Every structure is written in structure tokens, then in C-alpha cells.
Amino acid sequence: MSEPPFRPREKLFEKQKYFQSIHKHTYLKGPYDKITSVAIPLALAGTAIVLIGRGIYNMSRGIGKKE
User: Which of 3, 17, 37, 60 is least surrounded, with the fewest CB atoms within 10 Å of its CB?
Assistant: First the structure.
């Protein structure tokens, strides 16, 4: 028993030609790859920097200490 493929072969060949013709890095070839490879890490790094800065500010001022 053989089941049909998920996509027709013609569509697969079109996608292969498209991705092989793009001269970008492998991790940036897809339509949503910039979101997962660039935006999310930048957002995490930015959040970490803000939280570290806030912690240093609070420690230098003596704010938010537990009694």
C-alpha cells in the first residue's frame, strides 16, 4: 500500500528551485525565518539587558530590598 505524497511533485520542484536560487544564509531563506532567527533573539537580549540594568540601578540605590 502506497499513500500519496503530501504535496504534488510539481509544487515540490518549484519550492526546491526557489530555495536553491536564493543567495542568502540557510537560516534566513523562509518567509518567517527572520522572525525566529533575528527578532526573537534580539527581543530576549533586549529584555535581559533592561532587567540587568534595572537590577544594577536598584542595587546602587538600595531599592527593593527584602527585610
Answer: 3
